[in-house]
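Protein modeling request. Please complete all fields; requests missing the sequence field cannot be processed.
Requester role: graduate student
Desired output: 3D structure, token encoding
Chains: 1
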Amino acid sequence: MNEYDTNRIYDIAKSINYKKTNELSKADCYVLNTCHIREKATDKVYHDIGRIKKNFKDKKKPIVIVTGCVAQAEGDILLEREKYIDAIIGPQSFHNLNQIIKNIEKKSLRENSTSFYVKEKFDTLNNFKNSDNSVSSFLTIQEGCDKFCKFCVVPYTRGAEFSRPINELVKEAKDLVSNGAKEITLLGQNVNAYSHNKKKLSNLISELSEIKDIKRIRYTTSHPRDFTEDLIEAHRSNKKKLMPLIHLPVQSGSNKILKAMNRKHTIEDYLEIIKKLKVVNPMIKFSSDFIIGYPGETENDFSNTLKLLNKVEFINCYSFIYSPRPGTPAAKLNEIDHNISKKRLLTFQNTAEKIKLKYRRNLFQKTALVLFENKLKNKDEFFGRDEYSNSVIVKSKENLKGKIKEVEIKGGNQNTLFGEINKKLSKRNFAA
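Delivered output (432 residues):
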């Protein structure tokens, strides 16, 4: 979602004659767009500010603005501690960017803008064409969260759940297509909680599927509590365009820990969703998020997490040691020994990596449909992603950007698959 926000921030700023630059030492304005989910996010802000100070030690100071969730959560603290910051803008307030920049330019005012007027933000953004020219582009359809998982800061930094009207989203999707998008990923803190005028995520997927030049649709991040029957059915009715990889965070394999987290679903609920999705499309695979070492986690709880990992065989996992986020209920709980958490995380990641390696080796000598996104620098090589978002590189004299090709997978490493364009069009043994 931060990538989408960053792109829209640029769309706004260029209307007052700002443009992107890779020459950071010559920038007139720095916008640091932040995320508060990960540990030490605030420390990274101070590190980045320190780097800017060093670059401009003997030059005129640029305008420095911190946006995003760290700004929302710790705005006053940031302004008090770091005088180099000119403005703090929360994730629901960045539509005010231009006015804030003008205020700074004219009056050298420092400002803290952290309101939760989400509708106002998107009403403003609708006046700026989304200029993202990526083959694979992002589209925010929903923001905020009403789930209040005890470890999560999002409800406090993004506010309540808000869904955008379908007509606005269809228009923005068409803008993205006109700029070269072939694949659109629908974004939301709880993307499958999308609901506007009785229209759900499944309805939006169906409408976007009607746009001819959209070849692929993905969505993230979903919540098990909002995985409704109509969304499951959408994976049958829109099978051609809706990609068969679902990111479905579970966080733990223990019902006890899920209850302590206030997730309000059980492992049985989670597995039932997977079962139903496999019925409508047996090719569907899953990725997930896991928190290791949540307060109160025992060896038995961790063992249940490993059992779930092996049962589902996630093709990708994002796993982290629990770290308390200030202001959340879980921050008041007693943490378990860090060395224990570290050991469990290592065990988990080694197991997850073995599962992933087995899956990837199974792709060798099979074919996959790859959407190519760009050409690599100084080489006749193109980068793309298959149906399961695996990175694929092939050599080609033909310009492959924006095209979908059958690729025979010849090998790969931990992060990337390597292949050749399959000339035998009759061969359709797709990797899964």
